[in-house]
Amino acid sequence: DTAVSQTPKYLVTQMGNDKSIKCEQNLGHDTMYWYKQDSKKFLKIMFSYNNKELIINETVPNRFSPKSPDKAHLNLHINSLELGDSAVYFCASSQADRSPLHFGNGTRLTVT
Amino acid sequence: AQTVTQSQPEMSVQEAETVTLSCTYDTSESDYYLFWYKQPPSRQMILVIRQEAYKQQNATENRFSVNFQKAAKSFSLKISDSQLGDAAMYFCAYRVHGSGNTGKLIFGQGTTLQVKP
């Protein structure tokens, strides 16, 4: 009965490859997010979707493309991976802007 | 732009003692929310406590309480009777209310809490 689930947990790949991370929430929330946690543990928002509509795009390179097929899913596709993309990526969801964010367990991406 | 600052990169506390983690933020908004999240080594992000800016009363959740000073833009977390399981990284976060931002969380840099037996 996991609330926000991301797959995979770990992703190791080479520079130049394309990869995807999937996220699903079963909380019935309207808004979903992608956050990036860098090597210094700093968390920064990348994207936000509300009812499948892109709301926030925080100056993320266009190699990163989120896709929301429905409000329960928000996937992240990354093209032409670079060493600097190595990080932990968190998916999150919330019902409204008064409620807290519920986070997935993160995907550790390592680019070699 | 809103910012959140946690000035203590690391803190330590003896088991069963009390510790306070500091957080300050900068905003011109009057309606917002503040949160503390805990991230243990398992890297889960766990909500510890939240505070609504329009509420004067400080939030409390069991051993966790906050000292919210709206005028000073300060939001510290007090952990009483510290337990070994409290060892984690703690993040202070701010969330604006209202259209246009749809509630994105802005995080501080985090404070690593060590609990000594």
Describe this structure in words.
The complex is a heterodimer of chains A (112) and B (117). Helix content of chain A is 0%, strand content 56%. Chain A is an all-beta fold and 112 residues long. Chain A has a single domain (4-111), classed as Immunoglobulins (Immunoglobulin-like). In chain A, strands 2, 4, 5, 6, 9, 10 and 11 form a 7-stranded mixed sheet that branches. Chain A has a 4-stranded antiparallel sheet with strand order 1-3-8-7, with no helix packed on it. Chain B has 117 residues and is mostly beta strands. Chain B has a single domain, classed as Immunoglobulins (Immunoglobulin-like, Sandwich). In chain B, 0% of the residues lie in helices and 52% in strands. Chain B contains no helices and 12 strands. Chain B starts with a strand and ends with a strand.
CATH topology label of chain B: Immunoglobulin-like
**Helix/strand structural class of chain A:** mainly beta
Strand content of chain A: over 45%
Shape call of chain A: globular
Largest interface, with counts of residues having CB < 8 Å to the other chain, equals: A-B, 27 and 26 residues
Stretches of chain A where pLDDT is under 50 for at least 5 consecutive residues are: none
Largest sheet data of chain A: 7 strands, mixed
- Category by helix and strand content of chain B: mainly beta
Number of strands of chain A: 11
Write down the CATH class of chain B.
Answer: Mainly Beta
State the distance separating the first and last CA atoms of chain A: 34 Å
Measured on Cα atoms, how large is the radius of gyration of chain B? 14 Å
Roughly how much helix do the residues of chain B carry, as a percent range?
A: under 10%
Taken in chain order, the helices and strands of chain A follow as EEEEEEEEEEE
Strand segment count of chain B: 12
Could you please say which CATH topology of chain A applies here?
Immunoglobulin-like
Look at the structure and name the CATH superfamily of chain B. Answer: Immunoglobulins
- Rg of chain A computed from alpha carbons, rounded to a whole number of angstroms: 13 Å
| Full CATH superfamily name of chain A | Immunoglobulins
The level 1 CATH classification of chain A is Mainly Beta
Number of DSSP helices of chain B? 0
